[in-house]
Design goal:
Chains A, B: It comes from Lentzea xinjiangensis. The first copy, chain A, contains 9 helices and no strands. Chain A is mainly alpha-helical. The longest helix of chain A is centred in the middle third of the chain and has 26 residues. The structure holds a DNA duplex.
Chain lengths: 193, 193
DNA sequence: CCGGCATCGATACGATCGTATCGAAACAAG
DNA sequence: CTTGTTTCGATACGATCGTATCGATGCCGG
């Protein structure tokens, strides 16, 4: 058996390049040539890793989703007491250092509306997040008449909307954070009864 | 003075075509040729209406924003009693017949993150909506410690997030509507005190 | 050492894009 | 009718895209 290559590693490296470019130009704006240049490989190498551009984008968005859920899980394990607040805080991607990820996420969400395979991938991520939040809300609630699923959906949508508004420059990150914290506080209040 | 043409009307007709196509393929996916074909004019005619593609897209998104704010205003005038609930209901674009507009809006928002002129246009629309909602919340509130601006921001973000989740198929329109109504009900409750 | 195969990267190809160009057509003014 | 100006739509152009192709390269088993 002749030459052997670690394709998995290269796929990840390429996915990073995709993210960098998608952050700058949107996912429609990334070309195979640019990706190859950014990842410091030849175009042929990219083609051998992914059968098509679509496959490449799909892998990249999955990569981002994975990192996000990992980070949320890590936060949960580290500080179970403030689980809800911290979880939604991470999901909202408001912190400066995750601005790039937020941009990529939004870009792919917008594309997903028009490209079904992408939508499937993203729905999985959202379903996982909704389940997680639902569980956290249910745990925080005693046994009141609250509907944890509905609260989780509201939280997720609110976080997503705030992130979007920050990205467009309609809100500052601080303002969004305040709105989010207020909502979470109100939710805890409601759950306590 | 020889031949004269109503450019304003044609710009609108072309904008409609842009919306139809952007709804199907995303705004990156619309080409001048397709737009011209859809609007039943020649490519040259489109070029004479808009100096560039960017100018065309900008006009189109402005067109959509105009229609949206018009509709919200109409609702307000028609039924001032349930102003808040109806207003946010319209903004969320959850009703089936406005699904296309919602898709276009999301697509442009995603692009705006990467194209500053578009972002400016959209920020204007959002600022107008936020002001409107702030006013409605302030009117609904007596004189409690509530922060109308913050509540308006939460409402707007929640509506936007829910719309996005419906478009991706993560939530049904009904589920989103329920979440939204619950939130508005909670807000009214809070404002009453 | 060598023949064979996996991998390489450069290049070719065809399509599509936004935009520029230009002669023909259409209409008002003289 | 002729002239002058505006609008027309077809076509040309150059760039860029995703993808296919292919000879060179380098490693491994024998």
């Amino acid at each position: 058996m002749p030459k052997q290559v670690d394709y998995e590693d290269r796929r990840r490296r390429i996915a990073e390049a995709v993210c960098l470019l998608a952050d700058e130009l949107g996912p429609e704006g990334v070309s195979m040539r640019d990706v190859a240049a950014r990842a410091q490989v030849s175009v042929g190498a990219v083609q051998r890793c992914f059968r098509s551009k679509e496959e490449m984008l799909l892998f990249a968005v999955g990569h981002v989703g994975e990192r996000l859920t990992e980070r949320v899980s890590a936060r949960l394990a580290a500080d179970p007491a403030h689980a809800l607040g911290h979880a939604i805080d991470e999901i909202a991607l408001l912190r400066e250092e995750h601005r790039a990820e937020a941009r990529i996420w939004l870009a792919f969400v917008a594309q997903a509306v028009v490209r079904e395979p992408l939508a499937r991938t993203l729905r999985n991520s959202y379903a996982a997040l909704e389940d997680l939040l639902t569980r956290l809300v249910a745990e925080a609630a005693g046994n009141g008449p609250a509907d944890p699923r509905a609260e989780a959906r509201a939280l997720l949508a609110l976080a997503d909307g705030l992130t979007t508004h920050v990205l467009m420059g309609h809100l500052t990150a601080q303002a969004a954070e305040d709105v989010l914290n207020t909502h979470v506080a109100g939710l805890r209040e409601r759950l306590r009864t």
